[in-house]
Design brief:
two-stranded antiparallel sheet; mainly alpha; 45% helix
């Protein structure tokens, strides 16, 4: 081997470690870039196994579809559930329009999806009593909505196959490719209570299947509760889509800090109730933007009216825009003078009774009906 060949061989060997080191550095840099490119919201997204989801939804899978839709939506705001449960428990004596007026009058800071459950103090009580479960349910619904809906169908299928889930005076169970559960009366929601350990397993010999699912009380949800979506909540099972107030629920794990849901009711996140120390700045900004739009509309209307009436308006007002300031003050008051629908005396607000296992809350709401058995 010539001297030149020997030098080239030595030089090639000396370059290999440098080449390998450079390759490692480049790969590490690419990995770091990919990690930084991943949206922060996507990191930490929940990923529950089907068996976990089955256990998670088992407590509520047999709820009627409109109530189930609302529970899933409310579970995505777990930090508000306990305070809402306390408020609902303190106002058990109110029903129908009186309860709706109290909700509006107190200018509650909680999300409308949580407020929608205030007519169901026992449902909120169940959620508040096990915050780990409620938080997991909400996170699963944010991150795996279709998988959650699949789990609900699996649990309903089990309960129906074993003979527990069937139509009766309170609920209508639909067949077909997807199992639907609807209230017998659209404006009257009865909450079933049952032991998940029982209704999703083969009945033992001699067990009375008809007594596995009970119904204690129902809640009349008429016109006063329409702003919270009641009457327009449903689940499109063929698409695994939850509809709240007739609009698809599109809040996900990624957009959970920005999404604004399809409610018509006002809420006041800048107000604090009990433990409500969070400012919810994005919601406050959203409401401020909404108030600015209203203020602009008021001023525009005043301008149009002034143009239509000509100088007469100027002479009558002596050049002062007192009416505009009154409108401005009213809007700044966040619409406190607007109490929404007033349909008092026709609704029967009650309290649901939801039990797990052999637990029987036994709570009776004022004016509640007692619906026992199937």
């Amino acid at each position: 081997m010539s001297e030149r060949q020997i030098r080239n061989t030595i030089a090639g060997k000396s370059k290999r470690p440098a080449t390998i080191k450079s390759f490692i550095i480049i790969m590490a840099a690419l990995t770091t870039c990919l990690m930084l490119a991943t949206p922060a919201a996507a990191q930490g997204a929940p990923n529950y196994a089907p068996e976990q989801l089955d256990r998670m939804v088992s407590r509520v899978a047999l709820y009627p579809d409109p109530l189930l839709a609302q529970v899933l939506a409310a579970a995505t705001f777990p930090d508000q559930i306990q305070d809402a449960a306390g408020w609902a428990d303190q106002h058990r004596n109110l029903n129908g329009g009186q309860l709706a007026d109290a909700i509006n009058g107190d200018q509650l800071p909680w999300d409308p999806s949580v407020q929608a459950l205030l007519p169901f103090p026992n449902v909120l009580g169940t959620m508040a009593g096990d915050m780990n479960w409620t938080t997991d349910l909400g996170n699963a619904f944010l991150g795996q909505q279709q998988e959650v809906m699949n789990a609900v169908q699996r649990m309903r299928q089990r309960a129906r196959d074993y003979g527990y889930l069937r139509s009766g005076p309170q609920l209508i169970v639909g067949g077909g490719p997807y199992i639907t559960i609807m209230p017998a009366r659209p404006d009257y929601v009865v909450v079933p209570y049952y032991d998940p350990v029982v209704v999703y397993a083969r009945p033992r010999v001699g067990f009375f299947i008809g007594g596995a699912i009970g119904f204690r009380v129902g809640v009349a949800l008429g016109a006063p509760f329409r702003p919270w979506g009641w009457g327009y909540n449903r689940i499109a099972w063929d698409r695994r889509v939850v509809f709240i107030n007739n609009a698809p629920w599109q809040r996900t794990w990624v957009n959970r800090h920005e999404y604004h849901h399809p409610y018509t009711v006002r809420f006041y996140p800048e107000h604090h109730y009990v433990r409500g120390n969070e400012n919810h700045g994005h919601e406050v900004a959203y409401r401020a933007h909404e108030r600015n739009e209203i203020r602009h509309e008021v001023r525009h209307d005043e301008h149009v009216r002034a143009e239509n009436h000509g100088n007469n308006v100027v002479h009558e007002n002596h050049g002062h825009d007192d009416h505009g300031r009154d409108e401005h003050a009213r809007v700044e008051n966040h619409g406190h003078d607007d109490r929404g629908h007033d349909n008092r005396g026709h609704e029967n607000h009650g309290n649901d009774n939801h039990g797990h296992g052999d637990k029987d809350h036994g709570d009776k709401g004022h004016g509640d009906h007692d619906d026992r058995g199937h």
